[in-house]
Amino acid sequence: MTSLPLRLGDSGDRVALLSNTLFRLGLLRAAQSEFDSDVESAVKAFQQNRGLTVTGIVDDETAQILEEARWKLGDRTLHLTTPLLMRGDDVAQLQSRLIELGFNAGRVDGIFGRLTESALLEFQKSAGVVVDGRCGPSTVMAILRLMKVVSGGAPAQLREQVAREGKGPALAGKVIVLDPGSRCADPFITFDIAQRLEGRLIALGVTVFITRSARSNPSDDERIDRANSSGADLVISLAIDHYKNDKARGVATFYYGADAHGVHSVVGERFATLVQREITARTDLLNCRTHAKSWDLLRRTKAPTVQIDLGYSSHPGDVKRLSDPEFRETIVESLMIAIQRLYLSAEDDAKTGTLKISDLRRAGIRK
Q1: With 0-12 CB in 10 A as exposed, 13-18 as middle and 19+ as buried, what is 66?
Q2: Tens digit of pLDDT for each residue in 294-333?
Q3: What is the separation, in whole angstroms, between the first and last Cα of the chain?
Q4: What is the pLDDT of residues 244-300, one digit of tens each?
Q5: Looking at residue 252, what is its pLDDT?
Q6: Opening angle at CA 138, ends 137 and 139, nearest 5
Q7: How many Cα atoms sit within 13 Å of 289 on the Cβ side?
Q8: What is the Cα–Cα distance from 337 to 317, expressed in whole angstroms?
Q9: Integer CA distances (angstroms), 14 to 34, 35, 43, in order
Q10: Answer CATH for 162-363 from 3.20.20.220, 3.40.630.40, 3.40.800.20, 3.50.50.60
């Protein structure tokens, strides 16, 4: 159930609970019942560390991540629960340790799903503890004992990169999900770009799914479920940002990353970088760079996912550009080239801004 956001000037029991959590996380000197500037600074520090949008306001997303942050491995028994999955820092710690020990727990996302359960069962079999898919005291002790003698690298990131390289350079046969944002001043723009991109990808043999129609507005959960059920190789979410004044402008790209857990999507980061470079090389949109975020769309989507904020609906210049069909066509070409460069080997790649769609056939993307 949605709660009213907490912000500067608020007080009461909810603020006291918030400040107590921030105090236990080492971000606040003492718990208190007033949401003052110290609490606001602590909230901003938490949001920054967790890859959330830094506002100093505790909305539903920040409240959820704060709740997850209070759990440490061993505080509770972890196991698969349905329909709501267990989420928390303790789950992320379990996933990270299982991966370091050589068990495929998938992405370190702090969500106890089927893959985490499978990795836990395999670990329990090999460690000689009760095989029940529940991470209780005996399993935690076995993990900690083995962690002292086993050191790992970054197998999850390597696995993701190898999977991408194993797909080969051809786009034919790949599955790409396009997620045109509808929560913007003119949802037609993102849908139009998605449709233009869809046509070009289909012509190259790509299977394309679009998460919404021209008039629908699915929830984030529905978008994520659609992407996950498609068997996607890549998910591209298109958005247009908004700000309280007309100063903010430009293009930015976002990929999954969580500094608190020391993880990020290698393929997501690479694709975000390619998109950012191609768009800024081919247009005059301000380069607002790439950023790691732990937003649910990036975190819970199984395939490498990138959100592209194509400009600001609050900036007249950005609006004028995006309203021009020819400009949108340039965006589509930039995305097409970035997609292909993601799968090209280093020797077949080219300098940013120089490849054209007509060059892709020579790169071996389609027979």
Answers
A1: buried
A2: 899 999 999 999 999 999 999 999 999 999 999 999 999 9
A3: 52
A4: 899 999 999 999 988 877 788 889 999 999 999 999 999 999 999 999 998 999 999
A5: 97
A6: 95
A7: 3
A8: 25
A9: 10, 10, 14
A10: 3.40.630.40
